[in-house]
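Box 3.1 — From sequence to structure: Outer membrane protein assembly factor BamE
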Amino acid sequence: MQSFKTFSFWLVLTLTLSATAGCSSWVYRINIPQGNFLEQSDVDKLRVNMTREQVVYVLGKPVAEDSFDKNTWHYLYVFNLGRSNEQRKSLTVNFEDNKLVSISGDYEQPSEFNTPLEQE
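Predicted structure (token representation):
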């Protein structure tokens, strides 16, 4: 009789786990933004010849610095990863002689980007 109860327990447990495994789409998954969230207003503050410290002050630390090219920084942002409404944005910042020379990516280049900040 004891072995029948043990067998029944394991059978019910196995069937329950198998049934709930198929319901994984019912499980709530929280959306966690990953990377640097930038707005166009942040990017609009960038100017040619800004130092690395000034760029960090405006945009924050980059998610990734190119291992093979220390003059390239990548700002990446992902939200709703793997879902139909996934959002991805990127901004690549390039330096020469520790001065900002160009930007590219999903943001518009500021109209005043080529006007350097006033040197004091």
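Summary of the box: The helical segments are 2-21, 40-43, 52-59.
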